[in-house]
Amino acid sequence: MEAVKGFQDFQVMSKDGFEAAMTATNAWTKGMQAIAAEVADYSKASFEENTKLVEKASKVKTVEAAIEFQTSTAKSNYEGFVSQANKIGEMYVAAAKNAYAPIEKRTTKAS
Question: pTM of the entire structure?
Answer without folding.
Answer: 0.77
